[in-house]
Write a structure and sequence with these properties.
single chain; 35% helix; 68 residues; globular
Length: 68
Amino acid sequence: MPTRTLQIGSITYAMKARKALSSISIHSKIIKTSSFGGCVYSIEFPSDQYYTVISELKRLGIKYETVG
């Protein structure tokens, strides 16, 4: 299944995002991505859940950037 990745930033917010997605039955995983400023954490999830995921992150006030 194709996946999408959203860059979250800190591990704390990535964990918060993963927990929130899990609560609405969306499987996701945290991945560590490199950045010019150091470590950045992202969440990876099924691409068919993209609009649900961004809606949930916006509702929670979690900032993100689309990767790729």
